[in-house]
Amino acid sequence: AVVYVQLLIDPLDRLLGWLDELQVGTASLARLLGVAADEPPVAAAAARPDGTRIEVRDVHFAYVPGREVLHGIDLTLEPGERLAIVGPSGAGKSTLGRLLAGVHEPTGGTITVGGTPLRDLPLDQLRAEVALVSQEHHVFIGSVSDNVAMVRPDAGAERVRSALAAVDALDWALALPDGLATTVGAGGHPLSAAQAQQIALARLVLAGPHTLVLDEATSLLDPRAARDLERSLAAVLHGRTVVAIAHRLFSAHDADRVAVVEDGRITELGSHDELVAANGPYASLWRSWHGERTPEDTDEPLADT
Ligand code: ATP
Q1: What does the pLDDT look like over 207-243, one tens digit per residue?
Q2: What residue spans of 86-240 are helical by DSSP H?
Q3: Residue 60 alpha carbon to ligand 1 centre in Å
Q4: What is the C-alpha end-to-end distance of the chain, expressed in Å?
Q5: Which protein residue's CA is at the shortest distance from atom 2 of ligand 1?
Q6: H/E stretch holding 218
Q7: Which residues pair with 75 in a beta bridge?
Q8: For residue 222, with 0-12 CB atoms within 10 Å meaning exposed, 13-18 middle and 19 or more buried, which class applies?
Q9: Where is the ABC transporter domain (predicted)?
Q10: What pTM, to 2 d.p., does this model score?
């Protein structure tokens, strides 16, 4: 069963959403709203010859002055590493994800990529480095093509088609009433939640960032749609650094390492096996997710907590 979800919003709503969310840092807002004219070609952005390490050093963050939600995060992400971030609701997982993606700037400490603070990267380089995939705001009013090409307006029809094909979306998109010219977004042709997500993923394929931060990208989907999307996502994740926040389709045990965030701090960091053996907070979380299941079932997407 396909769940139809109203993911379709107009650009003004999106802008207002951003303004609402970005209570700090007009620099961040400017970055999100700007469109880079001369981004590197996809191949250049996707290739990672020597790799770029992301270093998070004593990062603090407050949305509202005096009310800190992250209290000194230290973390090093090696190129190509897959890190899962888990922890209780409100612990600061999404906030950390947004900082890693350059949406917000730390109020203390630094995040560097290849030694350069994220805040010093021009927008085109920031976009080539890292992208945030969240469950909100995937589709804008416009054609399917425009929705994919918006990150690279000069991409051309062939690269848009390739990006859609890479995430298994080309066939259904071509079957829409006007094919790739069909208007989607608010008031346009309705899309399922999975289709909207695929459009967002095709956009990512075209943008080709080194690092992806996935924030609950499938939580609006039923398990079957989530599993279908996992295949699409695999094409996007390949060869990239991935930070997955409490993700159903990117099970923690598939990650190279897991970071447990509790009350704005990383309280555990290690491989799935190490943390299960340590029998701490992660082991409890894992048991609550998988307590009723057999070992063979652990390939299933994580249940909602
Ligand atoms: P969940 O798993 O429920 O999504 P989380 O671990 O991702 O939680 P965050 O969403 O990062 O947690 O929230 C951390 C803290 O920051 C919470 O206390 C939350 O209320 C607060 N917070 C989150 N977003 C904002 C915002 N835009 N403005 C002010 N406070 C916020």
Answers
A1: 888 898 888 655 556 667 666 667 777 777 878 898 9
A2: 93-100, 123-129, 144-149, 157-166, 170-174, 193-207, 223-237
A3: 14
A4: 22
A5: 89
A6: none
A7: 56
A8: middle
A9: 54-288
A10: 0.74
